[in-house]
Records
---
Amino acid sequence: MTTLKELAKLLNISVSTVSKALNDSHEISENTKKRVIELADKLNYKPNRIAQQLKTNKTKIIGVILPTVTNPFFAQVLHGIETSATTNNYDIIVCLSDESLEKEKRSLELLSNGSVDGFIMAVARESQVKEQSGHITDVIDNKIPVLMFDRVVNEISCDKVIVDDFQSVYDATEYLIKKESREHILLVSNIEELSVGKLRINGYQKAIENAGLKPKILKLSKVENVEAHVYQYIGDHPETDAIVSIDHITGIIAINMAKKIGKTVPKDLSVIGFGYEHTQLLSSPKISIIHQKAFDIGKMSVELLIDHLNTEDHQLQTIIVPIDLKLGESTK
Amino acid sequence: MTTLKELAKLLNISVSTVSKALNDSHEISENTKKRVIELADKLNYKPNRIAQQLKTNKTKIIGVILPTVTNPFFAQVLHGIETSATTNNYDIIVCLSDESLEKEKRSLELLSNGSVDGFIMAVARESQVKEQSGHITDVIDNKIPVLMFDRVVNEISCDKVIVDDFQSVYDATEYLIKKESREHILLVSNIEELSVGKLRINGYQKAIENAGLKPKILKLSKVENVEAHVYQYIGDHPETDAIVSIDHITGIIAINMAKKIGKTVPKDLSVIGFGYEHTQLLSSPKISIIHQKAFDIGKMSVELLIDHLNTEDHQLQTIIVPIDLKLGESTK
DNA sequence: TTGTATGCGTTATCAT
DNA sequence: ATGATAACGCATACAA
């Protein structure tokens, strides 16, 4: 890699003159600037970013810690994060916790040595289940800004970007009750132990309760078993006329298996799930979704974090990204 | 952030003594080491990574440039990359080209200033269509190792990790012909302009030709139109008894819409698509897949690149990751 | 307009 | 056993 020193030597001028010339300082003569820039171009000079980082004490890198990236919600958020980061001249270092507390902890520690200017994260499942968050407050105490999205820790005060999980499921459930006259609405979940899962279940329960109906909740731990369990449940409870899925996958599985058990969607059974941009392509008929604007969540997270980084006396914020109910063909 | 200098001042010893003590040098007395380590722990000292990077001229960061991450194949590869990188004490900076030549170019340029030790990339769709790759050779000429996976540029000599796209589709097609006695096999594609797409189509054509059958290829540009086009094609060609999808999505859509047109899978229609770990959950009946071991591709890419980085006289390699045909319920 | 000196935080070499 | 100094590449305050 070409350095300032090499350029200076070749041109028989000092390093600082070269530096100033390349930064278009008014102190330098046009003639010198021209000579310097020409040689720099010729030798394909690029300022060494590591040196700049050391000098300015800023990396222009955001650490992004995600539970997983094979879940399309997080993949889409990552897309939003990357896009917005690039726009703002930031790079992102991505770590996957694989839902593990240990790995999340390790990543935060390893990057808290000047590697990044701040973090964007969604908390790992295990961290939420075990209610451990000391590793996160450590980072914040260390004066490195942290922003949480989607899965957040209420007790930690930091920037947050979330959706109104309670309200969205409340609305969806109410829609099924009032607009579609459904009375036997099953909630299907494989994320009941997450903060967002609890909020969504609460939204369902409240709507059911307000309508004087009876809540029915099917908690499924393994994604591999969803089809079998739903199949059995509906066999045992054939009166079921609607399903609310509070994650991004169980609703799709339910629709795709419905015909097996003799239910026509949406005539006999309405299904609403959580989803993102391409979810609706994966079921036939198309699933109706509570649309989390995953890309926007990523984008807004970056913007809020960068605002934090650039502002002297930043006020912590919680942004609630609106959700919309996007009807497909799985509702009447 | 605590620095060596601060520790030295507080302990009334020199910076170099502190440095040596923390690196457990034999030159330093046990007593001093103890004092230093105690204070360092107390103040939560961590060596500044940027300074170390400047000193050693190594970042221990790999630049990862992906076309997209919402395609689950790339998401899964990324998972493999991240896992293996972490194991080897590397971090990854992730850039998404969004299939755009310009963005790919920009990312490569921006990171070629010492930000990363090497690159892992899959070429953007636009770069492949326009057959542009000068921006990639520039990087390599600059002595920064580049590894390509999946979508590669044949003309560039660098490390590569690929699957045998030709053979895998050849085998799948032959399976349908010989084991399932299918005779009207439709190939569905939305990636025919990619290097891998061409290879896969060739595999199909060769198998069809060897069996004396007639190739039928349906090229679909927009993922939104797949269902409608397949529907129409089968309406016009009701003799169709099998579908080979050479991407990860059109096969799923075909299965989920088959019943609409009165075809029972797999009695009347077999479907084989490309897939990865969780693909089979998304269709009912479960799709049969040509299983690309995406995680392994990511893992092996990291290992090969790191080997390149650590080896003085590295020999460029092309690793072919084996594929297996993973039967679901969409074949007889 | 140009050059010299200093420092960012670390490590390594060379004194003491 | 400990300390002083230089160097990585860059940017800037200060001299000339």
---
Amino acid sequence: MARIPAAERRAELVAAAVRMIAAHGVEGATTRRIAQEANAPLATLHYCFASKEVLFAAVFEHVAGLYREVLTRNDVHGDVPTTAGALLRGLLEWYVANPEFGAATVELISWGQRQEGRQAEMVYNEAFATMRAILETAAGRPVDAAIIEELTYMMSVLSDGFALNWLVFTNRTAAEPQIELTVGVLDAWMATNLGDVSRPARGASTVSPAETSRSLASWVSVQ
Amino acid sequence: MARIPAAERRAELVAAAVRMIAAHGVEGATTRRIAQEANAPLATLHYCFASKEVLFAAVFEHVAGLYREVLTRNDVHGDVPTTAGALLRGLLEWYVANPEFGAATVELISWGQRQEGRQAEMVYNEAFATMRAILETAAGRPVDAAIIEELTYMMSVLSDGFALNWLVFTNRTAAEPQIELTVGVLDAWMATNLGDVSRPARGASTVSPAETSRSLASWVSVQ
Amino acid sequence: MARIPAAERRAELVAAAVRMIAAHGVEGATTRRIAQEANAPLATLHYCFASKEVLFAAVFEHVAGLYREVLTRNDVHGDVPTTAGALLRGLLEWYVANPEFGAATVELISWGQRQEGRQAEMVYNEAFATMRAILETAAGRPVDAAIIEELTYMMSVLSDGFALNWLVFTNRTAAEPQIELTVGVLDAWMATNLGDVSRPARGASTVSPAETSRSLASWVSVQ
Amino acid sequence: MARIPAAERRAELVAAAVRMIAAHGVEGATTRRIAQEANAPLATLHYCFASKEVLFAAVFEHVAGLYREVLTRNDVHGDVPTTAGALLRGLLEWYVANPEFGAATVELISWGQRQEGRQAEMVYNEAFATMRAILETAAGRPVDAAIIEELTYMMSVLSDGFALNWLVFTNRTAAEPQIELTVGVLDAWMATNLGDVSRPARGASTVSPAETSRSLASWVSVQ
DNA sequence: AATGAATGAGGCTTCATTCAT
DNA sequence: TATGAATGAAGCCTCATTCAT
């Protein structure tokens, strides 16, 4: 009966939903559980959100916002490889620090993919857009879209793969070296491929070391 | 509905369960749907499997077997980097060729992680073991466990990350370059960390013995 | 939503309720829908009417008023058979012109019959009273109550039966002959029981004084 | 847990549904109430009927069957007017003897009219078909379809109108004279109009008494 | 006085499971 | 042994109503 602004109630419910999805999966995140977790009567959930679907849409927005925030927070304002590495590291550390969010995200992605509305895509696209913006700022000048695309794609692949593995094993002691390893993979790829604007889309780089370093030189903005 | 021995029914039910999980997710793979898909009475499901959980355990075994088979089928019997690249490529191509199974696997992993029995770990561990065995055979002799560990870890991270992205976008035209890119990332890392810089991403290694220097010298089996 | 005095709101809410009952039946005429249709906040409905039941009581009054109006409007100020026929015809044509209201009325009658307060009876009794008054005026002098009773009863039976059939089939092309037929039945009965055999069904009576013999002689006002 | 043949259970549920509809209206005939009235757990209702809608379809069939039975039982195998009068009287007496069924029927008709499937029409059409068959047999020879149509239409109008009035007032002492009156109305109309095959569809009969009796003579089968 | 916010009760339906044969 | 029949628990959602302002 406590009079709580609707906006606040909504936020509470979304947070509770994330927690329940993390704990019991999308399947187990029932309206009852979510409402109870939010300390609200079941009917209140439906007062704030017309349907579970609508609530979950808000959850998607929330998760997308979290990603944006994590990425923004980890922008080191360095050159492209440095920034990309920092972003990836930020994501991985965030997963390790918030195991529930990793779990919730994986659940949501795979659930959202079967729902109407392509909400899973939305989360990805927003994350891609944020990465892209940060990386373009880091480059300090317009850069080949294809390369940015590849870079963001690999960052998402690596962070997702890391997250799935972490979700399964949640081995805290292994996490740190795994982060290093994963970031190292991105670094290795950037060292080998970054800066080569004319690099063919397919196949491993055949760029000679000399060429690689030169083009890389024009990439790493000294800012 | 002809009376069919329980043993046969079990296999049918597992297959039906896999199909239903692929089609509707773990959430949507209800006992009713599975039984119907297997052309069996609902009660038969519980006659063959004590509970849904037990049925899903069998499903996990089945999926683990699929992974083993995909990996085994893609063993090119080359040196380590070549073999690792081929295994990864095999996984990614398998995901692209069977979009439902990618979805089903992700669902199962994240579901199994919440259940008793660590079944998700089992699937991973079995896949790791298979990769390890193949790579050790490729190496031709016992090798540093840590390096194999890193390699298999990265292969799983990359294939999982790829799978998740593919699950969301299922963009067939983008898939091929993404496969190249993802395999290329593994290559770059192997080249950097194992020493092989110029091996082409696809096909048998054309790396010259000279280039295969340093760490790789002790690694790449020329077979 | 501008603040509107309660008195005005009451009328709006009753009108909205009638519309919603017509459109969705008593079952579907929820407080929410009624409030929204009246462009009023939901709480206002309960501010204006203690309960849904009270609102529906007002709806009954409204419907009773509609009947009174339809009957009054169709008073042709002829003799008794002519007037009775015109009243019945007026009702039937009203049903045909307002299919939703026929539905709403049937719904309300059968709903009201289950509620406390005998509101369905009230609507009938008011309609009977209106018919009685019109017919007594048509007779031009006090007449045998039993005959008026029979006449009004049959008018209600015929109009209700017509309404129910029309409600089910809503066949516009069939409606006109059905009206003729139904009015014709009343005519036939009046002719048999009141003596007027040949009065045309429609328009003013052309019955000759001579034919208006027997019981009707004491009945039909020549005015 | 008592093992009851499904068919029996279904019949019990349908009967319970009719009783609940009569008592609380279609609106108040909730699955819970129906199940309880049938002494069955709620889930059993959905085991026997896929949905409330399906249950209600069965209820419609049941009611249609009752009508057929009442009509058949009241076939006196006389000539057309006698038979028609007997059928109508049978219906009215049935309503008086089973007030719940009248109530349930009115509810169902007005509810069914808003649902998919035109089930209300089905009930009517079946009743019309039964009447038609009985009357044609009574005529002893093929007769003008239009006249049978008019007759059956009026029988349904009169019985429906009677039922609605009875539903509202349920005045047992008034019922008997009302039955006489209602049947009398049909009789009067038949006496005036029956047998006139060429009678225009519109307006009261202008048939002279002589003509009427003659054509009637050819109608009333002496059998 | 008027209304956003909130809610207990109950709506229909589906679930995994067990019973009785 | 297999399987139709049956069911308690729980799913999401909407209802009329009341509370607090």
